[in-house]
User: Fold Type II secretion system F family protein from Corallincola platygyrae.
Amino acid sequence: MAVASASKAKKNGKPTSELYVWQGVNKKGEKVNGELRGASPTDVKVQLRSQGVTPSKVKKKPKSLFGVGGGSVNAADIAVITRQIATMLSAGVPLVQSIEMIARGHEKQAMQTLLTGILNELQAGKPFSECLKAHPKHFDDLYCDLVDAGEQSGALDTIYDRIATYKEKAEALKSKIKKAMFYPAAVMVVALVVTSILLIFVVPQFQDIFEGFGAELPAFTMMVIHISEFMQAYWYIILGGAILFGYVFKKAHETNPKVRDKTDEYIVKLPIIGPILHKAAIARFARTLSTTFAAGVPLINALESAAGASGNAVYRRAIMSIQNEVQTGMQMNVAMRMTGIFPDMVVQMVAIGEESGALDGMLAKVANIYEMEVDDAVDGLTSLLEPLIMVVLGTLVGGLIVAMYLPIFSMGAVV
Assistant:
């Protein structure tokens, strides 16, 4: 029977596995659920028990009509596996076994390949931080430095829990920023598409009718007709130019630091969006500095990591300036005040943290405050833009309708 099971679990000499959904109870008595890859339901149950979970239900996950994803690894995936590693380490599961179980249970082929490569290097005797540094696309310097600090201190489980919290907070903040940027872009795109359709396809129909009137048209109507004629004649040039500009700007933004810096400087000055980006940069700065400082990374190095993680050129330059001042012996709160971009409340909380010797805890509170403010600001922006979309579209469509019907109203008045 065991031989038969083993033969079924292999195909072409390689172990096969399926994705299973499971439900169970953890060591705290809480109901938990998730997905795990294994050779059989029994294999999945063994994996769960080794993680401290008592399984109550395990069944094969139904496959999507379009196939189960094997897409590329993204930042959200890294955040998830970081939390999984942190949980297993805190439960006493060895690092090698933890990575092996996560690799075997992950539904993305790309993630399985990534983790398997790390596992092979780890089993060859390399430090975990060195294994991660071989994949800079997925594990940045900050991540690797924190893991290295955990290995050096012998408290990798504690450090990994901090890394997991940091990654989760960073991803949540990134999602909020994307949401804040999406709505203004959506308003403009919808407005442009609707206006273009009306000018290219609807206005010409009215233009044919007006030519039969033989009367002088109102100035507003003539202006709309001229715009419509221009759009009909050159729409492909306008569309091609917009696509070309977008492509060139995207490439320049990716390859030219000066373009990125100028874009950052411009965006933070925008109304509504600018204040949200300011708060997000402060939240990233405080969260990164709190995590690295608490992990035992020296303040100078922690500031360098925080500069890179701030996500904005204005704050990156300011934080590097703070680092230079701190190296000369100046207190960090004084250096922060000199930059002129950090709010007084943040500077005061940092000063209290320095005086009390609890800088990491105070920075964590600053990060929590500003993450909540970003969340509230994004929700407020969403509520504001919903009626704004209707106003913008109503004004554009209404204006075009008025322009087209104005000659008819004028003729009715004459009659």
